[in-house]
Amino acid sequence: MLPKTRRLALLALLPALLLSPLRLGAEGMNIADTVIKLPLEEGVTMDDAVQSMKLRANTLNFKLVAHQPLYKELEAMGVESKRVEIFQFCDARIAHAMLSESLDFAAYLPCRITLIEDKDGQPWLVSMDLDRVIAIANLPPELLAQATKVRDTIQEIMEAGASGDL
């Protein structure tokens, strides 16, 4: 394992590494490579997706800690917008463990899933690709297991939302 100062230095570089695809487009990466996206299945409404995500998160002991209906804020300001809502989920114990390892994890908490309608009206669920973060975090085994659990849980919440699975 790397010394703590080295791990902190690497974690400090994480935002630059995640954003570097914006500058390295010629090398084959772009911003889309840093996220996971799931389209809602045919017949699944955006309201169905929201309900399914909330129920699945509750089943998996992840708390919905924030909900931001961004499109409503935009409409209140007179800006026409398709539906955009941001949901933030968290397991406080895992968040505490990650923050105890490094304050840099604060930039990634809580886990976000955005429900968004694209320009063609297709609804999507979009979240950060946690595999990219996990791969460079150099976590000790017990935290790696917890980070993997978070990744799997967020994926399961997204899949439930996309399929409308209650």
Could you explain how this protein is built, in words?
A five-stranded antiparallel sheet has the order 1-5-4-3-2. Helix 3 packs antiparallel against helix 7. Helices cover 49% and strands 19% of the residues. Strand 4 and strand 5 form a beta hairpin. It is globular. The chain is of the alpha+beta class and 166 residues long. The longest helix has 23 residues. The termini are far apart. The protein has seven helices and five strands. The chain has one domain: TT1751-like domain (TATA-Binding Protein), CATH 3.30.310.
Output the number of helix runs: 7
Measured on Cα atoms, how large is the radius of gyration? 17 Å
Largest sheet descriptor: 5 strands, antiparallel
CATH architecture: 2-Layer Sandwich
Low-confidence stretches: 5-26
Main β-sheet, spatial strand arrangement: 1-5-4-3-2
Query: Superfamily at the CATH H level?
Result: TT1751-like domain
Tags for this model:
alpha+beta; globular; 5 strands; 19% strand; five-stranded antiparallel sheet; 166 residues; TATA-Binding Protein
In short:
The chain is α+β, with helices and mostly antiparallel strands and 166 residues long. It has one domain (34-163): TT1751-like domain (TATA-Binding Protein), CATH 3.30.310.
